[in-house]
Design brief:
Number of strands: 17
Bound molecules: fe (ii) ion
Strand content: 25-35%
Number of domains: 2
Radius of gyration: 19 Å
CATH architecture of the largest domain: Roll
Helix content: 10-25%
Structural class: alpha+beta
Strand order of the largest sheet: 2-3-4-1-5-8-7-6-9
Shape: globular
Length: 340
């Protein structure tokens, strides 16, 4: 196994999801979940949503049998992917472009396959498949004012090839620092930011070792009995990835996306509204640590909570996954039936 590549991202920045109907999903994430649309690329059926935590918390791309091609013929979706709804990739935020390029060089030197390198004009990115086949993006922001960039480029294709060796990488940390976050007053759930994700893995210990060595994401809590681990990036104190050993990989390729809520509406009140709209959802937890699990229109599961994610997942992670499996099974015939 290669060692010491250690991308060591600060944190999870976004979920990029393949969806069957991008307009329907954007409406769901706006009206039900409280995210704001900030940018779209109609030529590749892509909509970006964020409340300001980073340039996008959610990238929604409509599935298609065709290739997704960006600027200059840059193919944005790996061969074979993008045909069914579910996880496209997780996007991890790096401290600086220099840290990203250093890790990229270590990966090449230690023969870790890099899938592609991309210039998004907002960020530079390195993509790779991790040891279970999940697709990851490590990105470094190259501009600080993404709102101005979006305003100037609305509707345009923005992503093309990036050569990490062409120019000297910046040493500046350009990720948003203490941003003013939008809070929807109309949505059922008042999402603050996407913060973590749960992934299925084939071998928990081998995956924990790989994530530490290659990705630089370290296990801070391991439940050997349930085969569930909580990992975090270098901006410590949160929870960025949860891994669960399972032989049954879900069709969505994602156990769940984790979303922090603004404080406000009680989860139990939100649950009643979700049920009235026939949106599959469940409450999990206790008086101290709790969350709501919701299936989106493609049955992609999201966990919404105001509880600290690390403690929530350490205590209730396996129960959350069990409840998601129950929701999947009990709504198997109602896929895409959720109404807004
Ligand atoms: Fe991404």
């Amino acid at each position: 196994m290669p060692t010491n590549v250690k991308f060591a991202p600060r944190r999870l920045g976004h979920l990029n999801l393949f969806v069957s109907d991008v307009e329907r999903s954007a409406a769901f994430y706006r009206d039900v979940c409280g995210f704001k649309e900030v940018f779209r690329e109609p030529e590749i059926s892509m909509i970006f949503m964020t409340n300001g935590n980073t340039h996008h918390d959610l990238g929604l791309m409509e599935i298609t049998p065709e290739d997704r091609v960006g600027r200059d013929g840059h193919v944005q979706v790996r061969p074979g992917a993008g045909k069914t709804p579910g996880l496209n990739h997780l996007g991890f935020e790096m401290q600086t472009e220099a840290a990203l390029v250093d890790a990229y060089r270590r990966a090449l030197k230690q023969k870790v396959p890099v899938s592609r390198t991309t210039d998004h004009q907002i960020a530079h990115s390195v993509y790779l498949s991790e040891c279970n086949g999940h697709f990851f993006e490590f990105y470094a922001d190259i501009i600080e004012d993404f709102s101005a960039f979006y305003a100037e480029n609305q509707g345009a294709l923005i992503s093309g090839h990036w050569d990490p060796e062409q120019t000297a990488p910046s040493e500046d940390a350009r990720f948003p620092k203490d941003p003013d976050l939008f809070k929807s007053n109309d949505a059922v759930l008042t999402s603050r930011n996407v913060a973590y994700a749960g992934l299925p893995v084939k071998d928990l210990q081998a995956s924990i070792d790989y994530y530490a060595d290659v990705l630089g994401l370290n296990a801070v809590q391991v439940d050997h009995e349930s085969k569930f681990a909580v990992l975090e990036g270098s901006a410590q104190g949160g929870c960025d990835v949860c891994l669960m050993e399972t032989t049954e990989f879900p069709a969505t390729r994602l156990l769940f996306g984790g979303v922090n809520l603004h404080d406000g509406k009680a989860l139990t009140d939100a649950l009643k509204v979700l049920e009235s709209k026939r949106i599959p959802a469940s409450f999990i937890g206790d008086t101290e640590l709790s969350c709501i699990v919701v299936l989106d229109p493609d049955r992609i599961p999201l966990v919404y909570s105001t509880s600290p994610a690390g403690r929530l997942m350490a205590r209730h992670g396996p129960a959350v996954v069990a409840e998601i499996r129950r929701l999947w099974a009990s709504n198997a015939d109602e896929a895409n039936a959720a109404t807004l």
